[in-house]
Hints:
The structure holds two protein chains of two kinds.
Chain A: E1 7-11, H1 15-27, E2 31-35, H2 38-44, E3 51-56, H3 64-74, E4 80-84, H4 89-97, E5 102-105, H5 110-143, H6 146-156, H7 161-168, H8 172-186, H9 191-201
Parallel strand pairs in A: 1-2, 1-3, 3-4, 4-5
Helix pairs in contact in A: 6-8, 6-9, 7-8
Chain B: E1 6-7, H1 19-44, H2 49-72, H3 77-106, H4 111-130, E2 137-147, E3 153-161, H5 166-189, H6 192-220, H7 231-272, E4 276-280, E5 286-289, H8 291-297, H9 301-304, H10 315-330, E6 335-336, E7 343-346, E8 352-364, E9 367-376, H11 378-405, H12 407-433, H13 442-467, E10 475-477, H14 479-489, H15 491-496, E11 500-505, E12 512-514, H16 516-533, E13 542-549, E14 555-561, H17 589-599, E15 603-608, E16 614-620
Parallel strand pairs in B: 11-13
Antiparallel strand pairs in B: 1-2, 2-3, 4-5, 4-9, 6-8, 7-8, 8-9, 10-12, 13-14, 14-16, 15-16
Amino acid sequence: MREPTPTVYVVDDDPDVLKAIERLLESIGLQVAAFSSPHRFLESCDGNAPGCVVLDLALPGLNGLDVQRVLEQRGSALPIVFLTGRGDIAASVQAMKHGAADFLTKPVDDTALIAAIREALARNRVLRPAHMERERIAKCLATLTGRERQVLELIVAGRLNKEIAVELGATEKTIKFHRGNLMRKMGVRVVADLVKLAERAGVGATPRT
Amino acid sequence: MSSGWRANSALDNSDAMNWVEITWTMMISASLMLGVVHLFVWRKQRSQYANLLFFVLAASAAAYGAYELARMQAETPADLAVNARWSHVPLAAFVISAVGFVRLYFDAGRLWLAWTVIGVRLAALALNFLTGVNVNFREVTALDHLQLWGGAVVSAPVGIPNPWAIVPQLSNLLLVVFIVDASVTLWRRGGDVARRRAALVGGSLALCIITAASIAALVVTGVVHAPTVLMPGFFVVTLAMGYELVWDLAAAAQLSAQLRASEQRFRAVVESVPAAILLVDDGGSITLANAQAEAVFGYPRAELLAQPLEMLIPERFRIAHSGLRSDYARDPRTRTMGAGRELFACRKGGGEIPVEVALSPLPVEDGLFVLVSVVDVTERRNAERATARQRDDFAHLSRVAMLGELSGSLAHELNQPLTAILSNAQAAQRFLAQSPPRVDKLAEILADIVKSDRRAEAVIQRLRSLLRKEESQRHPLDINEVVEESIRLMRSDLLSRQVEVRTDLADALPPVSGDRNQLQQVLLNFVINGCDAMDGQERDRRLLVQTRATANGNVEVCVVDGGGGIPAADLERIFEPFVTTKATGMGLGLAICRSIVDAHGGRLWATSNPDRGATLHCELPAMRD
Lengths: 209, 625
């Protein structure tokens, strides 16, 4: 399957800077979507599509860190290259902690910016399949009922049907019924696959209390 | 026949003067002397008509006295009749001058009554010449020769009364009424002098007229055989009036002494005032100058007196000034001259000094004098200038400190166009490196580079201007422009502090006259203060900057914050130096803002918002054309 062309989203409230960076990226043949408002950007970006974000740190209303948090909550796979007018160490540390691809200071040299973008796109290419898999599993998990979810977690924890029945105060037959349903919903036939999926999605990583 | 008079058939022909002659001669000459004295007084003071009337009255009394003396020595009835007829002329003059004197001197008495008395008296005078031998006798048939004490013999008429004698008697009656009425009026007016005058002059005059009228009536009707002796009464009246007039002269002399003392005091005051004092007459000439005037203008007094005031006014103002002077004459009030404008005076040799001038009208008899007091304010102006320079220095220092605080934001303002320029230039390089080179993009890119460069230049200019230390300069400013520029300079700072600024700027505001840098400093300070007030606050980090026209036509800028607010007790204190609510900062910012706005003729104050936070206000006077 051929990858669609990645999009570089550029967000900067200064129209002159925005236009100049857009132009620079176009000069090396990248597909660019430029936004002067963070809200407009958040409305139109697709976190699953291939690409990356060049994000100004100081934005009116919603600053760069806020935008990063929103994307993170949405489960976006777009790596972010931050641009900042000043060397704000606290902000850069926070941005990097939340997985920023890079943190560059304005005025930014073309080679540094282009290198950072290329690296971000590469990272997006690598991460996107796993990310999309996680998305798919998450979608399947979302279809489970509460009971099925409880059963799933106990299976992943390595309990037998009998033990699960005792724990949940149900008959073994009922547990078997739930187990069949959830295996079907998760699209697996053997327990080993189910456990692998659940691990990838992080289910049961935190022990229930 | 009266008991005092004894009939004697022979005249006393002795050469030695008898006592009647002596007494009458003395009374006549005394009256004349008194009268002449007051004639001289009148000659010196033409407005004192009472003195002139008194002279006429005294002279009339003297003349009448002379007739009376001659009459008492008449040898034939015909002589006596002729004498009596002519004696009515001084009598009438006496009555008329008495009426005039009372009216003038008392400033009382009914005018119509006065004219009636005069009219009737003139009628009596006419009848005196037209009927009988005189107005009292139709005919004098004989002479009585009466022997007085001490051997003096006088003649008295015997004859047929003239029925017209009633007319002079009517005049006498009216005269008495007039005098009594005037005296009562004067008496009622009160005051020791007025009452004495009413009693003495009014009383003696009334008594004299009553006596004279009674004697005349008794003699004419033949009830008493005696000469009509009026001179003693007239003399008493003359003495009484003379006394009063002399008293007036004495009082005037006293007054003049007081006046002299008062003038000396006035001069002493004028000399001691620490201002130049000039007294200017209605023609604009200097009539008085004090020692301070000599010092201020550099002219000795002799060169100031009788000179036109305009000599002390710089040439370029002279023509306008004489116009202003006549304006002042039309509306003379005590006031300062040239309100709100700086005035200059010209010293000897042409040097100019800044002055303050106060004017006081001084109405005198012959026109309007103006008392001009001039203070040399050179020292004060110098002090004011030094203060202004110091204020500018402080403002500059505080501005530099404030810009230090904002340096990050300002660097960012420069960084943005630099970023755009770099990226544009590098994009152009890359477009050119392509094969074939894409030159189509170049024009657009270069235009953008130029634009960004201009933008950076504008920031640098503004910064340089704010940092430069220069004397405050006033220009017409659009306050909205100052507000927008200030917010633009702080943009990055506002973003990093996550403060959202909204503006609500009124259209069509009148311009204000101000120093752009200093007013921007005030605005920046306001905004920084608002931001500081909201530090550490999670929500509602909003700032509203408003401009509006005030009810009195001035321009107001408000910065409304949503912070913790200012305690009511501190609303005024925050403008004092070294008062701060912040952990950092000297507490000079707002104090300097206030001194800046004061120097602009505006005012600065703080209010608490109804919901939360505080508002800083700055009102500036609008420029009016």
